Amino acid sequence: MSDQTGILIAILVGVAVIAGLFLLVVPEPSERAVIATERLDVAVLAFRNSASWRGAEETLRGRVEARLVREDAISVYSRAQLDALLMERALATSGIIDPATAVEIGTLTGVSKLVTGTVYAADTLSEPTTLCVKWDGGNCVEEVAGTKYTVRVMAQVEVTDTRTGRIEQSTDKTGTGETTVRQDAKFGGYDSLVASACDSIADQVADQLTSTYTRELRYGLYESAKTKGSGYVGKGETRRFSTEDDVQLIVHFTRVRDGDLFDVQWVDPSGAVVDRTEDVVSDGEWQLYAWDLSGRAPGRYHVRGWISGLQAFDAPFTVGP
User: Fold this and answer.
1) Could you say which DSSP state residue 40 is in?
2) Architecture in CATH of 36-214
3) Residue 197 and residue 55: Cα distance in Å, rounded?
């Protein structure tokens, strides 16, 4: 077999694999719902620093705060107001805090969770390596000497409930930042790599909070639906139906706890619940709910989804003649 034939076969196999993977991918419904299972008003206190890298604790605090601000189900208390308040009250502002102080901070600010902790290591490393500077057809054809710079930040992160003063979570997190530069190029310093490492830890903190205290699902209303892989694909997403249609509600439980109770309620124009379905669901599960509109009076209806007793969504739709 010639080299050209081998390359052609490899390309065809690659295309077939990609096509197969594409056929297995189930597109997400368009609407997203994030539900807090308990009130998540969070304050990020200053972190303590027992590492040798000065300022790592403040960088981590800023990155954690900025990351939590981007979470839909989390409200973050202003850092400037928090620091001013703690200073005025002469309360502890960083590291491990006692239960009475945690409760007092919650009373003063209205927050339900405090996030704080300690940066206990910030290790730097530089090592020789090579860097590709010229590519041809996906292959490196020219390399030069380079240096790889790495920072590893390790921290203990704690989440305290301000109602009880109890530490609910205490976990170790590790983040890494790295870059490679030519041996003859100037290295800008480790500060940006420390920030990258702290970004990684901040992502872990956000994931920890959301997975513990929130649920997430995707949903959409469609004219029809079909199975694909382990899920469903909707066709004709709409909020307008006729009395000859069936409403197709697709729900994908992207982050729930196995055994959560999901309740679907169909509500008529008067506000009365005229039909409902209850399911015990699992993380990653897909569900399809079809509601027959024959015999229904025209008007504005709603379908509501509840998970573990909390309303996840309220989707209005119109039924015409």
Assistant:
1) -
2) 3-Layer(aba) Sandwich (3.40)
3) 13
